Amino acid sequence: MMLYELATLSGPLLRLDELSGAARSWVDDADAAGRLMGMWRSDIGTLGQVFVLRGFEIEEDQRRERQRALFSTNPFNANAVCTALSMETYAPFPFLPPVRPRSYGGLFEFRTYHLKPGGLPATLAGWKDVIEPAKRYTDHLVVNMYALDGPPRITHIWGFSSLDERRTLRAEHYAARLWPPKGGPEQIASASSTIAIAERDSPLG
Q1: Strand 188-198 vs strand 3-10: parallel, antiparallel, or unpaired?
Q2: What residues are paired with 162 via a beta bridge?
Q3: In which element (H, E) is residue 165 found?
Q4: Are 159 and 142 spatial neighbours (Cβ–Cβ below 8 Å)?
Q5: DSSP state letters, 70-116
Q6: What is the per-residue pLDDT across 98-150, written as a single tens digit (0 to 9) for each?
Q7: Which domains does the chain have, with CATH numbers?
Q8: N or C end of the chain: smaller count of CB under 10 Å?
Q9: CA neighbours within 13 Å on the CB side: how many for 23?
Q10: Could you tell me if 99 and 159 are in contact, meaning their C-beta atoms sit under 8 angstroms apart?
């Protein structure tokens, strides 16, 4: 099973190019494991953040990369500019296809739902039932994944060409009662959303 790591690096707004470049050099290093899926910077929501999504086909590679960062005196090569770093490990919803490089239009939404205890099975079931019926909308789903560390939560990433496209698709699918996934919202304890812009050389753009 593919594992994903979502790293979030925070830094000064006027130095995000430097922060992004440092993170890219870290994941491109000859000693690095895993595959870069995408890089973004936040644009609406909490500002001053760079997101790095990597995939790992071998669990040991993911562990090794986490150790590489934890025991580095300069994780992500970003000490000169990074003010905070978080690294989260996720497994994908098992019925979704793996993440592949693709152009979505450059605008991405990161949605995290903190779940009530025991809420993951019903969440998975609801999402599984709606993926095909809501295909025009879910074709914009980059990945949905559940956390393997920290509190129970899911994070899903969506790609669009604009906020208008996102709003129109959501409105249409809500009106047709194809969205949200049945039984899903009842499992949500809290939710957050960030709009991010893909970096120029991101595999997902």
Answers
A1: unpaired
A2: none
A3: helix 163-175
A4: yes
A5: HT-SSGGG-TTT-SEEEEEEEEE-TTSPPP--B---SEEEEEEEEEP
A6: 999 999 999 999 999 999 999 999 999 999 999 999 999 999 999 999 999 99
A7: 3-91 (3.30.70.100), 101-198 (3.30.70.100)
A8: N
A9: 32
A10: no
Instruction: Give one DSSP letter per residue of 129-164, joined into a string.
Output: HHTTTTHHHHTTEEEEEEESSSSSEEEEEEEES-HH
Residues 6+ apart with CB under 8 A from 15: 81
What residues contact residue 69 under an 8 Å CB cut-off, 6+ apart?
Answer: 7, 75, 76, 85, 87
Indicate yes or no: pTM above 0.85: yes
Give the tens place of pLDDT for each residue, 21-31: 999 999 999 99
Among 29, 33, 91, 27, smallest CA distance to 65 is for 33
Tokens of 9: 């690096």
SS3 197: strand
